[in-house]
Structures are given as C-alpha cells and as structure tokens.
Amino acid sequence: MSKKKRKEICIVLAGEAGQGIKTIETTFASILKQYGFHVYATKEYMSRVRGGINSTEIRAGSEPIRAFSEHTDLLVALLPEAIDHLQHRISTETVVIGDSEAISHPGMLDIPFGAIAADSGGKVYANMVCLGALCAFLDIPADFAEPFIEKQFSAKGSEIVANNITALTKGWEKGKSLVKKLPFTLDILRDSAIKKRLLINGSEAVAMGAIAGGCNYICAYPMSPGTGVLTAMADFSKTMDIIVEQVEDEIGVINMALGAWYAGARALVTTSGGGFALMSEGLSLSGMTETPAVIHLAQRPGPATGLPTRTEQGDLNLVLYGGHGDFPRMVYAPGDIEEVFALTKRAFEQADAMQAPAIIMTDQYLVDTYYDSPGFGTLKAAQKHAVMKTKAGYERYALTKDGISPRGIPGYGSGMVCVDSDEHDTTGRITESSMVRKAMVDKRLKKLNTIKQQTIDPVITGNAAAAIVIIGWGSTKNVILEAMSSKQLESAAVVHFPQVFPVPEKAADLLAKAKHIAVIENNVTGQFADLLEKECGTAIKHRLLQSDGHPFSLETVRNWITDFMKNKRG
C-alpha cells in the first residue's frame, strides 16, 4: 500500500512540567525555520512549576501556518497520563510515540527515551532524545541541529553540551530506524527565504511594538499571561534605554506608569484581567488628569483567578466599562503577530496625541504562540511626541475646539504644570464650580470625536458585497481565515476588527447591508457581538462561542462555518 504524501505535519508533545517540553518547542521551531520550513507552535499548560500535563503543538509545512488544529499526525507522549489527556485528538491516522517502559498504547512506536538518555549522561536528557527523533522523522540531519543545541546550552559548560548532542544523535538514529513505519511520507518544500524571517511570539511582538512606539519605561506585577511582555522588555533593556520595574501590586503599577508619563516618559503596563480590575481607579485617574496610558491586557479565563494559564476573550466588557465616570479610551485587539507590533506602536502614538488611555487586548493563546513572520521593519521608527515646551501662564487644561489641550511636563519650559485627580479648572487647580465642571466634562468628551475620526476600519477578506458576513476580533482572525476555503470566501465576507472601541463608523453600514451575520469569539456571552448590537443597532443572532480555556480549532470553526453558510446561503 502506498503511503500518503503530506506537505504539512502536526506534531504534539505532551508531558509534565519539568520534562523540558518548552526546550523542545523553542529549539525545534528554530531548527524547522532555519531548515526552510514554515512553522507554527502553540501550547497549553497547567498552573504549576512541576507535574501536571502540558502539551505543545508544532506544525510545519510548505505554506504559512497560523492556526491551532486538533488533527494530530504524531503524538509524542512523555508520561502515561498524556494519552488520556489528549485522547480526543487521537484518530486512526495518529501515530503515538512513547517509551514502552512507561507507556502502553495499541500500535505505539517505541522509543526508549529513558534508557537512551541514561546512556547519554542521565535521564534529564530525554527531551534531547525526543528532539533527535523528531528531526529524523522530518529528514533533518542531526548535524544540522547540533549548532542549536550548542547555543541553547553553551552557558552550562562543554560537558552538558556534549551530553545533549549525544542524546540528540542517538535519538535521531532511533527515529531514523522507525521512519519506515510511519503511515505517510513528507513532501514539505524547503524555502531558503524563510531563514531570514523572524520566529517570535505575541509577547515579544508587544515588546518590539512598544519600543517602536518610543516606550522607555515598563512596570508590572507578574501575572500570567502578561508576564512574558515584562520579561521580553527586561531582555531588551540590556541593550536599550528602558527602565524595567517590578512593582508590589497592580494598583502601584498603574500609578507609577501615570507618574512616568507625567514626567515625560512613555510607559507601558502589562497585566491580565485580575490586574486590570485593580487598575480601574488608576484608569479613571488617567481620564481625569488626561495623562496618557498604554496598558497591555493578556486575557485569561475568569472570574477571579479562573484558569490562570489558559485563554479566553472574556475581558472586553471590563475594558470598555472599567473605571468610574465618563472619559474616552481606545481599545485595540490585534489578530496576529504583525498586528500586535503595529497596534502596540500605534497605541503609544494615540495615547500621547489624545491624552487618553490606550489598551491593547491580547490573550494567552496569542502571546504564547510562535510562527515565522516577515518582520516589522526597524525598531527605530519615527515617533510623534505631543509634549510642548511651556511658558509663563501655561494652562494644562486650556479649553480647545477638539478638547485636546497642549501638554507640558514639569521642568520643560517655564510654565507651571499642575495636575490633580479632583475636578479642576483650566490651570489644573481644584474646583467645585458646577459651570467649570460642565465645561471640563464636555472638554474631555470632545476628544472622543477626534478619536473616532482616527479609528481603524475593519479589515474585509473575501466578497465585500456578500450577504453573509462572518465577524471576528483579536486572536480569532487567523483561525477563521485558515478554516475557510477559497470557494467560501467567494460567497462570504470575513470581517476582522483590529480596533474594537470606538467601534468604527463603517461597521454600521457593513452590518446594515448584510443579510446573515455571525460573530465568532472566545467567550460565553458574545461580548463583542453585544457591543456591535449596541453601537450599530443590528441584531446578531448567530454566534460561535467557546469558553473552555482553549483556543478555537480549525476543525471547530470550519465545521461551524460550513453548516452556517449551507443553511444561510441565498
């Protein structure tokens, strides 16, 4: 019987925290990219340092790959519980690989990870045995992978490097002997141009976008999954002029960031839903003092602690309505790594120009996912700074036609920069005058009109004139696009919203013209669909919602869209 030829492969590795799965993921993904394959990697992990069951999905192919798939070609199980944990992803086409000393599964290919690792210097090297076998399955020479191992472990000394390479080589040899037992052959085309692409995740893209936006100060209290941005910025601070501050709590975080902006810095805050909730008073302080703020919120399931290491899009209402009183804000929801960079940079420019908070919403899935990207250009892009040099008689809150007052900072010019959290007059001094209060409320809300004029339009893919419109926001972008066939895109429009608030004015016309509207979002109530109904006046009955802590899979979205279009076409 001839074997199926595949131009793509999906590999899933599962084991407990501490078994080195993350090392396999990052190293193998780098090897795949440098070998000339398009690569995608994402993970799901439990909230613990040791134990539990974590898994990583790595997809490699001839074409760009951007979405999570439940289909599994190879499942490498590093502990027995992994089989039950991923049973729903094991099909008749799945090849299970494991160590028969610990795992039993019908038709499993046996690789004695423990014994080979022990012969290589210790059982700690089992993950390198696994990496070697994976390279063999994809016909990547062992000596091609060796430089990556040297780079990964060079700081630990030559003996550790040598043992890891020995384990890699022995794993490769064992894997090569099993290739003939695979029910498929791989025909993944190599492209040397891929070697020049970036392999980064969402957290790194936020950090790079912030730097491009002029960020020179970041503060945070560590909170998954937002912490990755803090650590990425800490790495960048070794070579760039960036202050990195770990604060005692999120209340201190937002106030320190506002203080930094007041002094002339461009500050970034990174957090998750629980941390943002604690920042709501500081968010109002930003609104009242008209001090810029840029907040990155990496969503995870709530309420309360929820699932701290899983994913969801459940914090939109928190972001829209967090903070007491009325004041303008901007909310961005990038759908891929390229948008993460661009919108984070834009958030700094808009926060500075509008003197209002700008919030970048990602989620655990987006910040922890890697894929090869064409890159973003230089980090030293031109930046627009809205700070002016003050003069005597300067009024921080001078009334203007668009509500945006000239912003000064202390020590830059001769004027007094007075800022207060109480209601204030044009000079920034406290007042209880009803007339001044009304003037200041109107002034602050005038900025919303200017913000609306600069809101990013939704991105339409497919047939813009179609009667069927499928809407997504944030990280649902790529899975929706990859799930739809070219034929489906001829008869439907996929609409992605990079900015969810203010809702773009074009959204109302777009929805009014559509006959059938569906929204796909990763929460239980359809928070964005509700926002569109409120802002555009169009009922949205068809919603694909998910709130189990996992991202949407290609299979789930593809099946749902197929049924939806079949029932609604015409």
Protein described:
The protein has 4 domains: 4-196, Pyruvate-ferredoxin Oxidoreductase, domain 3; 200-373, Rossmann fold, CATH 3.40.50.970; 387-451, no CATH class; 459-568, Rossmann fold (3-Layer(aba) Sandwich), CATH 3.40.50. 38% of the residues lie in helices and 19% in strands. The chain contains 20 helices and 22 strands. The strands form 4 sheets. It has an 8-stranded mixed beta sheet with strand order 7-6-5-2-4-3-16-9. Strands 11-10-12-13-15-14-20 form a 7-stranded mixed beta sheet, sandwiched between helices.
Give descriptors for this structure.
570 residues, Pyruvate-ferredoxin Oxidoreductase, domain 3, Rossmann fold, 4 domains, 20 helices, 22 strands
Short description:
The chain is of the alpha/beta class. The chain is 38% helix and 19% strand.
